[in-house]
Design brief:
By secondary structure, the chain is mainly β. The chain is 11% helix and 36% strand. It is built from three helices and 20 strands. The strands form five sheets. An eight-stranded mixed sheet has the order 2-1-15-14-18-17-16-20. Strands 5-11-10-9 form a four-stranded antiparallel sheet. Strand 16 and strand 17 (210-219) form a beta hairpin. The longest helix is centred in the middle third of the chain and has 13 residues, at 160-172. It is globular and about 50 Å long.
Length: 281
C-alpha cells in the first residue's frame, strides 16, 4: 500500500495545493489550514455558508501566500508574520488567537466574495504561539494532539477504494461520479478494500520513521456537495445523501475518511509513492 495523493489547504475552505512531498508537523502537513476567513465578529466562514469560496485558487511561493480569482488581481500575503493586529477568532466552539492580514486582504475578499450576511470578511493567520487542542475523548490514554484551523484534527486519511465504492453507489442511482477533491483529504492511499481505513489504529512509514494515529471517523457536511473547482452545487444533496445511506455501519450520519494525529516523526518528510503499513484496531 502506498500514498497516492498529498494535499494541503493553506486557507481553510479555499482551494487545495497538491504536493509530491510535505513536512510533517503536529498541526498537520506544513502550511495546512494556517489561515482562515472570518466575519466581523471573528466567526469562521466556510463553503458551508459560501460555496463560491472553492473557486479561489491558492498557491505558495518562497515568500508569499497567493490567492487568485478571475474577478480580481492576485492577492499576495507575506509568509512571515510582522506587526499584524491580534484578535480572537472562533472555529466551532474553540476560541483562538489570530493575526489579521489587514485591509488589502479584507478588500480583496470583498471584491471576490461580497459581504457575508451584512458582515465584512477578514483573512486571519493562526497565531504562532496558539495551541488548539484536539478533543481528548477520542485520543488514547496519555495522548495529546493539537491542530490549526482544521475542523478538529490535523490530518485526514482516505482510501481510494472508498471513493470507488461511493461512486459505484452513485452510478446505481444514475448520478455522476465525484472526485476525491470533494472530501478535502490530506493523505490518500491506494488500498483496494473500501473503507478499510475505518479499521486502522495506526498508519506508519517504516523507512521515514513517522506514524499517524487514526482516531475518529470524519463526519461529512454539505461541503461534499460543492464542486471544488467552480464553487457550484451540481447535484443538491449528493454525495452526502448517499454517504448517509451507506454509513449505518458506523453511526447515523455521513462518514468518509479517518481523522488522524501525529504520533511520531515531527519534521520528517512524507511523500507520494511512500510504502505504508497499517496497524488494525
Amino acid at each position: 500500500m502506498r500514498i497516492t495523493q498529498l494535499s494541503i489547504y493553506p486557507v481553510k475552505s479555499l482551494g487545495a495545493i497538491a504536493l509530491n512531498e510535505a513536512e510533517l508537523t503536529p498541526e498537520g502537513l506544513a502550511w495546512d489550514r494556517r489561515w482562515m476567513v472570518v466575519d466581523d465578529v471573528g466567526r469562521f466562514v466556510t463553503q458551508r455558508q459560501l460555496p463560491v469560496m472553492a473557486a479561489i485558487r491558492v498557491s505558495l511561493e518562497a515568500d508569499a501566500l497567493v490567492l487568485s480569482h478571475p474577478d480580481a488581481e492576485a492577492l499576495r500575503v507575506p509568509l512571515t508574520a510582522e506587526g499584524q493586529e491580534r484578535l480572537s477568532v472562533y472555529v466551532w466552539e474553540d476560541r483562538c488567537a489570530a493575526l489579521d492580514e489587514g485591509v488589502e486582504a479584507r478588500e480583496w475578499l470583498g471584491r471576490v466574495l461580497g459581504d457575508f450576511r451584512g458582515s465584512g470578511l477578514r483573512l486571519v493567520r493562526f497565531a504562532p504561539e496558539q495551541r488548539r487542542r484536539v478533543e481528548p475523548h477520542y485520543l488514547e490514554p496519555g495522548e495529546q494532539a493539537h491542530t490549526g484551523f482544521a475542523d478538529g484534527y490535523p490530518f485526514l486519511v482516505v482510501g481510494e477504494a472508498s471513493l470507488v465504492e461511493l461512486n459505484r453507489r452513485l452510478a446505481a442511482k444514475g448520478l455522476e461520479p465525484v472526485p476525491m477533491s470533494r472530501f478535502r483529504p490530506s493523505i490518500v492511499v491506494d488500498h483496494e478494500m473500501p473503507f478499510v481505513e475505518d479499521g486502522w489504529q495506526e498508519l506508519a512509514a517504516a523507512e521515514s520513521g513517522w506514524r499517524l494515529g487514526l482516531r475518529k471517523p470524519c463526519q461529512r457536511c454539505k461541503i461534499t456537495t460543492v464542486d471544488q473547482h467552480s464553487g457550484e452545487i451540481e447535484a443538491p444533496g449528493e454525495p452526502l445523501r448517499t454517504l448517509v445511506e451507506m454509513n449505518a455501519r458506523l453511526a447515523p450520519g455521513g462518514y468518509f475518511g479517518q481523522n488522524a494525529i501525529l504520533l511520531a516523526g515531527e519534521g520528517r518528510t512524507i511523500s507520494v509513492g511512500e510504502p505504508l503499513t497499517p496497524k488494525p484496531r
